[in-house]
Amino acid sequence: MSNGSNLDFKGRVAIVTGAGGGLGRQHALALATRGAKVVVNDLGGARDGSGGSVSAAQAVVDEIKAAGGEAIANGASVTDFEAVQAMVKEAVDAWGRVDILVNNAGILRDKSFAKMDLADFRLVVDVHLMGAVNCTKAVWALMNEQKYGRIVMTTSSSGLYGNFGQSNYGAAKLALVGLMQTLSIEGAKNDIRVNCLAPTAATRMTEDLFPKEMLEAFRPEAVVPAMLVLAAQDAPNRTILCAGAGTFEAAHITLTQGAWLGIEADTPEQLAARLSEVTDREGEAVPQSGAAQGANEVAKGMANAKRG
Ligand SMILES: NC(=O)c1ccc[n+]([C@@H]2O[C@H](COP(=O)([O-])OP(=O)(O)OC[C@H]3O[C@@H](n4cnc5c(N)ncnc54)[C@H](O)[C@@H]3O)[C@@H](O)[C@H]2O)c1
Q1: What per-residue confidence (pLDDT) applies to 205?
Q2: Cβ–Cβ < 8 Å for 96, 148
Q3: Is the distance from CB of 110 to CB of 166 less than 8 angstroms?
Q4: % helix / strand / coil in the chain, to the nearest 5?
Q5: What residue segments make up the domains of the chain, in order of their start?
Q6: What is the residue with the minimal CA distance to atom 32 of ligand 1?
Q7: Under CATH, domain 5-251 is a member of which superfamily?
Q8: 205: CA distance to ligand 1 center in Å?
Q9: How far, in Å, is the centroid of ligand 1 from the Cα of 272?
Q10: Residue 1: predicted pLDDT
């Protein structure tokens, strides 16, 4: 497998979901330009997830082929596990492996929580969270056998930090960070690296949010470098990379130093009195796992018990 330069994808096989337009299309084009064979998946529906046609994916495949690349169009909905499995089989039958999965497909059903229908909540969770779970599950055994895999989950600032009217979308997007946290641990022994991308770009998903003068700065191409770095052979593992308008940042789920208060009758009062100390960000860290955080709490408790 030729990978002279880290961001050379020659010989790699990639699946990009939701690649008929917007960010996914740019991801697929960039991977193909850099040598990857790409499955361009897209349901081809409207922004709210209604309808569907493979023509959006086919147009991107035509573009890749016209530029001398290799690509296959696939119209599966990421919510349909059997169709997703068939998509993975199609890639393996054609090219023998799947190295990269970019979980990018998504929809919006925005409304304030008070007005939101639970059906719209479930659908958004189904497409973003279960869609990524389905695609990841369909490549997971293969990537473990290959002892190689790069998976990018597309999260969002709406999940990381919240946005009015996006409780369904934000919950689904932060769930992908949770999925990444565990899969990056489980995949490490077989060189499967799992990361999150939090993009900001002017696409049909955000067309009503960006003022006209910002459209150029927020073109989807500006997000692509972050995807390429997360999909590369030298990718990090367990990183949340934010990208938009040429700016790149990392988001972390940190833990403060906190304070040991014991388990006493007046601990609630102690906690209320010392809340600013517990939440103080000086010296905060990112635990290596959930278990590491638990171990840290036990260690503090034991150290303080000894002292007492
Ligand atoms: N544009 C932004 O600023 C922004 C910000 C944060 C996160 N995101 C995320 O980036 C990803 C791409 O969004 P975009 O802005 O390019 O929007 P987009 O609407 O242009 O692209 C989403 C694509 O996913 C496809 N899709 C929807 N449901 C599908 C399904 N069930 N199966 C297969 N394909 C399906 C759509 O047909 C569409 O082509 C999404 O996950 C989105 O949530 C975008």
Answers
A1: 87
A2: no
A3: yes
A4: 45, 15, 40
A5: 5-251, 267-307
A6: 77
A7: NAD(P)-binding Rossmann-like Domain (3.40.50.720)
A8: 7
A9: 43
A10: 53
